[in-house]
Amino acid sequence: xNEIRFVPTTRxxxxxxxxxxxxxxxxxxxxxxxFAAVYxxxxxxxxxxxxAKMGSTISSxxxxxxxxxxxxxxxxxxxxxxxxxxxxxxxxxxxxxxxKKRRLRAPYTxxxxxxxxxxxxxxxxxxxxxxxxGQIQPPVVxxxxxxxxxxxxxxx
Length: 156
Fold this sequence. Notes:
elongated
């Protein structure tokens, strides 16, 4: 089965590193050497583990959303796909026929969380949705991204 997995980029995974280093430095200044070392090791492992599990996978049957749990959404349940800007971060949001909205954990991009392939990834998700549902998505108001080319080639 063909599928594409979208996960946070390495830069997005390392975004919290300065915060961990500041807290560790504070503990070192206070003379808590062991606490600082253990804290950094635990937090780095925890963030790496959680971020590696988060993301989205598209396949012929639909989209699987992964965070702390997994949820599979069939292509036929998706009314349209929208790119929203939430506090400076652009995220992909699915609007379902039952009125619910689901945000994908990846791809996303923003000021401190740049993903240079974000537009290509969004176009790929939209192309797969159009291919498996036969629908043509009208442009969503406020969406500044290019629509896929008519060539039918997946950019990502």
